[in-house]
Every structure is written in C-alpha cells, then in structure tokens.
Specification:
The protein is of the alpha/beta class and 234 residues long. Helix content is 48%, strand content 12%. The longest helix has 15 residues. One of its GO terms (molecular function) is DNA binding.
Length: 234
C-alpha cells in the first residue's frame, strides 16, 4: 500500500447521479478542516473524465453503484487499475448487496450504506485515506457476512486456486491474525486478543497483505471468506 499524502486536506470526489445527494455530501465534507471536495460527477463516464483531468489526483472517491451510462462497478475497476490510484468507497444499500462484493474485488477499499450518519461517512473517508479499509463497524461486518453467503460453493474436484496457494504461505500466527481481521477486529482489539503489542499486529497485517497480494484489509478479508478461512456467522 502506498503512503498517503498528509501535507494537505483529504481530496474527495463525489460520484452519484443524484445531485441532491452530492450536495448534501459536499456540505458535510467541506465543513471539515481536513477535507475538501475537489470533483463531482453524475455517472461513471463523467467520473473518469473529470478525475483524469484533475491536476492532482483525488485521494478518496465516494462511488455510487447504480448510475446511467457507466455504473459504479465499471468505474471503480477503471479507477483502481492504474498506478497511484485513488481509494474508492462504494455507496450501497442492502438491496444491491451482490454488487458490493464485486466492487471490492474490483479494487474498492470499502463500502458504506448510503444513508449512513454524517459522522460515519467522515470516519470512512479518514479511515480509507489512512490506508485502512472500512470493515470494522459491526453493521459493516454483518453486511460483509451477508454478501459472502451468496458466493458459489466450489465443486469438489475444483483445483486449488492461487488464493489457496497464497494462504498456504501464511504462518500459523498470520493466519490467526487474518481470521480476527475477517471478524472485523481492529489492530488494537487483535493485540488484546493475542496478548501482543499493536506494533506486532501491524507487522503481521503488512506481511499478510504482501503474501496475499491484497490491496488492503478488505480484499484480504474477502479472500478469507472466499477460501473458507472463516465462514459467515461463525
């Protein structure tokens, strides 16, 4: 994961086809001393054009899923495919759960409910900008578990995937840390669970992400569910 530029306010882009939603988000974000809205777009096509024309890239993009011309999934994949990509937080509601998992696979760093309280949205922006993923709150953890119940069950004769091979490179302690990450535990909570220093947990998390070739925690967690390291509701 690349280090974030902390020399100025967090540069946020808003991508949503509802102008009133963007206006509400802008008002909340621009009221914060450490954030500024640098771009808006009403669909994925406009988002790619506007964000590509910025003199300095956006740090965090709030991305709606359902939009005309180009949806949020396609736009997320395009935005996160290049080097020095912005971090994307997908905006969703429970009735489009299946799209969120695909967005995470496409490179999004997290997701939040569209009607989340303002303080939750601001917290998500800061968390993602700091290099973490938005998966810790219990409501988000429940949503993640709900998503992965829709994952197809591999056939018995399906050969091991590259993800399974990567998992085999984890040490016992790293696998234990991954399991706790997948249950929505923060580094501080994991440290308390394992009776180790938080710095030690951060080291384990870094090695896990490197070995799994995961962009951030949320992709590692999805992989943990997909490969059966943890199971929904467990």
């Amino acid at each position: 994961m690349s280090e974030c530029d902390v020399s100025g306010p967090i540069r946020v882009a808003l991508v949503d086809d509802q102008q009133m939603v963007r206006a509400g988000f802008r008002m909340v974000i621009d009221s914060q001393p450490d954030m500024t809205v640098v771009a808006e777009a009403g669909d994925g096509v406009e988002a790619l054009r506007v964000l590509g024309a910025l003199p300095v890239r956006a740090d965090v993009v709030l991305m709606d899923v359902r939009m005309p011309r180009m949806d949020g999934l396609t736009a997320t994949a395009a935005l996160t495919s290049g080097a020095d990509a912005p971090r994307v937080v997908v905006l969703t509601t429970f009735d489009i759960d299946e799209y969120v998992l695909e967005a995470i696979r496409s490179g999004a760093s997290g997701f939040m409910l569209k009607d989340a309280p303002p303080e939750e949205m601001l917290g998500a922006i800061r968390t993602v900008h700091a290099g973490d993923a938005v998966i810790a709150p219990s409501s988000t953890r429940r949503l993640l578990e709900h998503l992965v119940t829709a994952l197809p069950t591999p056939a018995p004769d399906t050969p091991p995937s590259p993800a399974h091979a990567a998992l085999a490179t984890l040490t016992d302690r790293e696998r234990e840390v991954l399991e706790l990450m997948a249950r929505g535990r923060s580094n501080t909570e994991i440290a308390a669970d394992l009776f180790v220093a938080e710095a030690t947990v951060k080291t384990h998390v870094g090695r896990i992400l490197a070995k799994l070739d995961a962009r951030d925690r949320v992709q590692a967690v999805v992989l943990a569910y997909e490969t059966g390291v943890v199971h929904p509701g467990a």
